[in-house]
Design brief:
- The chain is mostly helical.
- It is globular, with a radius of gyration of 23 Å.
Length: 485
């Protein structure tokens, strides 16, 4: 009898499944609404430009980095740490974690909005709930899910995949049914619908909103840990990244065109970012004679997806430091785990920073403004994190003789450095321009207020990262004194 029969058979993940896993954690149906509100029909050109000049290079860069550092547990932080030094590796890890905090609050808000549509069936949440009540309920949801982390382990990760898959199906269904409605008498709401309407109007506002497009399309590096579960990573991982790019292109381009069928891009509802997806399925249902059935179906899928995503985000963000961070940067109390193996103090820090954000949102006039402002904060901090992907790529191509990879994106070193440098500079500029408030007119009190909030938020979120190494030094000194005694 062969010895092989006694060994457990390894289960491999196909490149298609990995592409889908990555897709559902990166972009969802609602991600096409705020760019459509910010840039109108011209966002189609922006999506196409970004696809070829940014997304495809980005995802193939991730392919090379993933296959260069295929035995590292820290993901992006490991890439930067191994290609530069421990200090930059720590900062990458910190920024990777901290950028998830505004998103956690944002997702919690989305949970409330989805349930309001399930219960009320309309957009009257803002009239029924004060900003204080909205913030308090958001905080309660975050606390509740942190407590659930200790009771429910893998089931919510599975639920996230199911909810994400259902969300992808709903997104495709919207595009297909919009096309069906168009061929059966529905008139395009956005007029004029011609080539001129698609041409971008370059302005400071246009460029300041591009960070949100990067936020919507970034995150390919999340697939890196799955490399060890592939049969032939050298050939299969780049395929997964290509499929990811194609699915992203389909949703962003055709999804936006479908929105133009039901919404006039020149007169978009002021609460489009918060309630747009529900309006879209309501209008689609009316056109097809289905009433509100599609809207309620989407609201349920959205609620499941957002709750599962919240649970996974809380767990992943609080565990990130356990991956690959040098010991000299991280206080021991922050990585200490409870009986269930959960880094409880890390959860407390996540909760505290979420509360800080919610206190800031309490200074905004209404729920819609809160929702939009949090989105804009994500359009700043998320691209800053993505900069480290391109930094790491430039670093390994600069010293490419020191690093081996089974996959090489652009074999010519100079061309690779130019592409990596372009992506790095473009991402950094878009993130920095994102500080400019997008929902308030320049010179108004609302503009000044939101600009101040943007600077305070980013300064505090990134600035806390300076304190942790200092706390670790104090902790080590205290231990040394105790040993001397």
């Amino acid at each position: 009898m062969s010895n092989n029969t006694l060994e457990p058979q390894k289960h491999y993940m196909s490149w298609g499944v990995i592409a889908l896993l990555d897709f559902v954690t990166i972009i969802s149906f609602e991600n096409i609404f705020y760019p459509f509100q910010n840039q109108g029909l011209s966002v189609v050109i922006s999506w196409i430009f970004l696809l070829f000049a940014y997304v495809i290079p980005y995802e193939l860069i991730v392919s090379q980095l993933s296959l260069t550092f295929n035995n590292q547990s820290g993901g992006l932080a490991s890439w930067v740490r191994r290609s530069s030094n421990d200090t930059l590796g720590y900062w990458t890890s910190w920024m990777y974690w901290i950028q998830s905090v505004p998103y956690i609050v944002d997702v919690s808000n989305s949970v409330i909005v989805s349930f309001s549509w399930i219960i009320l069936g309309n957009n009257t949440l803002g009239q029924r709930m004060s900003t204080f009540e909205f913030g308090l309920l958001t905080f309660i949801i975050i606390l509740l899910f942190i407590l659930l982390e200790n009771l429910i382990k893998n089931s919510l990760a599975i639920l996230s995949l199911i909810g994400g898959g259902a969300m992808f199906i709903m997104s495709c269904l919207f595009v297909l049914l919009a096309g069906y409605a168009l061929t059966h008498g529905t008139q395009i709401a956005t007029q004029p619908f011609n080539l001129h309407a698609f041409l971008p109007h370059f302005s400071l506002k246009y460029f300041s909103t591009t960070g949100l497009l990067i936020f919507a399309m970034s995150g390919a590096e999340l697939a890196a840990p799955y490399i060890v579960q592939m049969r032939d990573p050298k050939h299969e991982f780049p395929k997964a990244m290509w499929l990811l790019a194609i699915m992203t292109a389909f949703l962003t381009i055709f999804g936006t065109l479908s929105l133009a069928v039901f919404f006039n891009a020149n007169h978009i509802p002021h609460d489009f970012k918060m309630n747009g997806p529900y309006y879209a399925f309501s209008l689609l249902g009316q056109e097809l004679g289905l009433g509100k059935i599609l809207m309620y179906l989407f609201a349920v899928v959205q609620a499941i997806f957002m709750m599962a995503q919240l649970a996974v985000l809380l767990d992943a963000s609080s565990r990130v430091f356990a991956g690959d961070v040098a010991d000299k940067f991280m206080p021991h109390w922050l990585t200490k785990k409870n009986k269930q193996g959960r880094p409880i103090n890390s959860y407390l820090m996540t909760t505290g920073l979420s509360l800080f954000l919610l206190l800031l949102t309490g200074t905004l006039p209404n729920i819609n403004t809160i929702y939009n402002w949090l989105l804009n904060i994500n359009g700043i901090v998320s691209p800053y994190k993505t900069c480290w992907v391109f930094f790491s790529f430039v670093a390994i191509r600069w010293r490419q003789k020191e690093f081996h990879s089974d996959y090489i994106f652009i074999k010519n070193r100079t061309s690779a450095l130019l592409v990596g440098g372009w992506c790095l500079i473009f991402t950094f500029v878009c993130a920095t321009l994102g500080f400019i408030p997008q929902e308030a007119a320049f010179g108004t009190k609302a503009f000044d207020h939101q600009l101040l909030l943007n600077f305070i938020t980013v300064f505090i979120l990134f600035g806390v990262g300076l304190l942790l190494p200092l706390l670790r030094k104090w902790e080590l000194r205290k231990q040394a004194v105790q040993l001397d005694k």
